[in-house]
Amino acid sequence: MAQSSTASVDAKLLQIIGIEVLSEKKKDISTACNGTIKCKTAHEKIPNEKNARFMYPDPVSFTQKKKSKSGEWLAEHKERGQNFKRYSTGMTINRPTYSKKFIYLTPLIFDEEPVPKSILESLSIYAAIFFDVPIKIGKKKNMLKVVPNRINEDSKTFQVDASAVLDKMEVPSDAFCVAGITMCDLYPKPSWNFVFGHAQLANSCGVYSLARYLSNFGSSQNTVYKPEEEKDGEPTIIRRACKVMCHEIGHMYGLSHCIYFECLMNGSNHLQEADKRPSFLCPLCLNKLYFIMRFDIEKRYRKMMDFWSSHGLQAEVEWLQTRLDIVLGSE
């Protein structure tokens, strides 16, 4: 009875992800995929077995989501979850087209300095790798006089209404989506304390803030980026900025918050939870993005390795190398 129960759980997880194991001897997910497992996605007529193996949920690379602690996102927000079938057959899918293919990264200013050029350039490089689309850096835009603002009672920092920002953002005719980037703290509605980022699929735009990722946040009304004061220097800010950027743009593709795995698409209520979530997509969310973009996952991961290595972020490099070793071990 125990073996039957385990097999049914494994089959259910693979169904949630949207893949099938083709091998005659189906492995239990408690053992890592060593490159011998043959998989296919549920959505491809002509299977790409190598790409599908990257979506096999081996426990070396991926951790299933556990019950959230008090104060964490899922403890405070009830979310239904979006399995692959719900995503692929739903109305929330958004994809680049020939005429609307660019992701715009637009620096937004309110009552503070703009995002530093070095960070903006790194973000544009990583977004191009992560989403496999061309990136344009939009013109700097000051929106101080067009959106509501307030002083946060807890942090004593200047904040702007993120929902109002999205309502006022301009989306160029060749844009798949626009991601506004700011050093200003954000709130999504008056009843909320703050939000790291906010996105609207219908308007193809999002906005996210780097303010709460800085060590000196809260020391003054307006956060100022001082890399020399950061504990681990600019690389830590690059990691955090890339994670929140890809999370918010992921929503532009119709990806909901992930409740199944520890994943880049997990919601987060505070900095500790945001730092805890991985820099990469889980098997399910990777399959969703692959369903839209059809990129070569191995090439994508190798480009990511070069990027993270160039910024000295070894934990990301090691995760990617391990993933490649596991999936391609027999090739």
Major sheet size, sense and barrel closure: 6 strands, mixed
Query: What structural category characterises the helix and strand content?
Result: alpha/beta
- The arrangement of helices and strands along the chain is HEEHHHEHEEEEHEEEEHHHHH
Average pLDDT level: 90
What's the overall geometry?
globular
Q: Could you please describe the fold and organization of this structure?
A:
By secondary structure, the protein is an alpha/beta fold. The chain is 35% helix and 14% strand. The protein is built from eleven helices and eleven strands. It has helices at residues 2-17, 49-53, 73-76, 84-88, 117-131, 162-168, 234-252, 271-276, 283-293, 297-310, 314-328; strands spanning 19-21, 39-41, 102-109, 135-137, 141-142, 149-151, 158-161, 175-182, 185-187, 197-200, 205-209. The strands form three sheets. Strands 3, 4, 5, 8, 10 and 11 form a six-stranded mixed beta sheet that branches. Strands 6-7-9 form a three-stranded mixed beta sheet. A hairpin with a 6-residue loop joins strand 6 (149-151) and strand 7. Helix 5 (117-131) crosses helix 7 (234-252) and helix 5 packs antiparallel against helix 10. It is globular, with a radius of gyration of 20 Å. Mean pLDDT is 90; it is low at 1-9.
